[in-house]
Amino acid sequence: MKNPLTHLSDLKLGEKAIIDSFTDDTMALKLLEMGCTPGEMVQLDRIAPMGDPIAISVSGYLLSLRKEEASTVLVSPLK
Amino acid sequence: MIKIALVGNPNSGKSTLFNALTGLHQKTGNFPGVTVDKKVGHIKFENGAVAELVDLPGTYSLYPKSLDEQVAFEVLCDPANEDHPDLTIVVADASNLKRNLFLVSQIIDLKIPVILVLNMMDMVEKEGDVIDTIRLSERLGVKTIGLSARNKDGVEELLHAILQPIPVPQYDFIDVKKIAPDLIDRVRSVVKVNSDFSAFQIINNLNEIDYFEKHKDKKNKIEDALNTFIIDKNQLQQKESVERYKVINRLVEECITHSSAIKTETFTHKLDSILTHRVWGYAIFLLVLFFIFQTIFFLAAYPMDWIESMFVSISEWASNSMPPGELSNLIVNGIIAGLSGVVIFIPQIALLFAFIAILEDTGYMARVSFIMDKMLRKFGLNGRSVIPLISGVACAVPAIMSARTISNWKERIITIMVTPLMSCSARLPVYTLLISLVIPQDEKLGFFNYQGMILMALYLVGFLAAVFAALVMKWILKAKEKSYFIMELPVYRTPQWRNVGLTIYEKVKIFLWDAGKIIVAISVILWFLSSHAPADRFDQIDKKYEGHVIWKELDSEIVEAKIASEKLEASYAGIIGKSIEPVIAPLGFDWKIGISLVTSFAAREVFVGTMATIYSVGDADNTQSIQDKMRAELDLKTGLPKFTIAVGFSLLLFYAFAMQCMSTLAIVYRETKHIKWPLIQFTYMSVLAYLASLLVYQLMK
After folding, report:
1. Residue B39: enclosing H or E segment and its boundaries?
2. What is the pLDDT of residues B390-417, one digit of tens each?
3. All structural domains of chain A with their residue ranges
4. Where are the domains positioned within chain B?
5. Is B540 near chain A, with CB under 8 Å?
6. What's the pTM value of the predicted model, to 2 decimals?
7. Domain A6-77 indexed as CATH 2.30.30.90
């Protein structure tokens, strides 16, 4: 069963999820070229000391992005 | 000579490979019309052949979103571009192959001759993974070479491959035509391009391509086609990206065997939990900053002293070996003095860039951005702005050069514009002289000494002004590109000393040639202004002191100091100083300070020397006697001491804010490639200085 969708920015530390879709077209293009494609698994790896930006593992590397940017990515968390 | 372009993702080890291939045979220029640095080197082959290698800016894709990416895009996609290569070497980080293959796939579809280099194969081996290079090469239809640029492993094989004839890639990576069939056909009927993907890129980036500015008729035809088909360019590109990753995922599965060992706590992960920790992260960063600051502030002082005394000997030698006169005067006081003003910066530039190269090379710089981003974003700055701002306390010149690591245009310009407000070391002699002039030394507030507190306050004021100016510019400046923080946090590596050395060499060279000539030119002008006078004014001064019996009895040094003082007053600089007196009078400055403001444009610390000349103190190093003279100076109208606390504070604030440094302006021009930015900087800082001094003087007097 598929979990309800949430925003990438709302994941908890260490939580894994599958990328579903994007809510912002410009951001989508930038994230796609960085390997964040729908169906790809991501894990919230690190949160900067002030709560923003965050770092996720995706496509075999560590990608940092701001919460605002991460909020345009819809993900389906893995249990 | 064949032209080769080197492309790849940031952090793919592209520069390391560039250095390994070209060594010291490289120079830095810039791509026509843009502020992007262009590194060109020469590869010398064993058989005597020579190839030209152009290092294109690091990019993740061929979508031109930033200036850097635009350059890479134009060079590769437009065969008419003057840098369009005969052969393209794409560097991919083999330990991070999936994302790196994205750019590779786009370049393959351009149908230009390509060699794929899988760099960092040593890392892959260390992880226990295996990449089937032969299979990957077959699937991609391009020559593929696995190597490790750091250890120079496999570089020979690459050199050998370059000399072989390289065909264009055999297959399309993806079928781009499927995404927009009719449009691609239409574009290909209007312009002659050698691939569907080139046509696709034209559809998506019509306005960014230089070629179509010269061929408006073709542009119009394509625009008409775009209008009839009603397309969403963004959707087209999204489809393309998804298609590419579908193929890449299959390829990676086929060609990489991951080791079965599960690496949960890698070295990078462990180090990150300390270096981006809420307490340790900042503590360590502060320590690093403190260390850098100490080094460029104190350690650089030694070589700077050597350079200074070297130039003193050179000018002594030059003035002794030439007949006295105009020419010797020009060479000694104009050109050699100007050169010494340039060379003196080398130790600080070299040390700062050694640190920056190490921080970048190890991957720590990306973490600094990560932990500082939220704080600095509010002021329109970037996580990486911290290094320029802190280095600005030592000297703005290397600091501004270091702003180059900020890839976002707006954040970089703001950093460059506000960095000179940080109180640099050249202001220190001026601060020291003025503070001890107007504040009694033994006055204390409890435990604290007033003089020390005021000095600290000046540094703080500079910092606050920089932050405030950044905030204002954030609102005024229009962004050319959106500020992203979507970037890789690379794995930690040991720095490569060869890269560090080459960075220092390159930065020093850029400074000496590009900023150096402006600095020397301005110092010659300043020399002329302060050593020349209209008509026979100087002769009259000489005559006045000639033959007078009374003067002959005086110490000749005192007479010389008097003559120098009167000549400075009579010179063009003196005339300028006097003519600006009405403007600076509301700040509490007289014409004597006016002259110092003019001459200290060469460097702020010249203020002290000029004051010494004006007050005819023979020895400029004797601060005490300059102070005594200044303290004894009386205001003609009131008969009270001229240098009151009000004048002192007004002058201190003026020096804290004013852009009194031609070297900084020269480097800002070099780094922004536009005269507009140094002019704006000069204007806003002068206005700020004037208003601050006006306010303080009028309130305190």
Report:
1. strand B37-44
2. 888 888 988 998 888 787 888 999 999 9
3. 6-77
4. 2-163, 176-257, 517-700
5. no
6. 0.83
7. yes
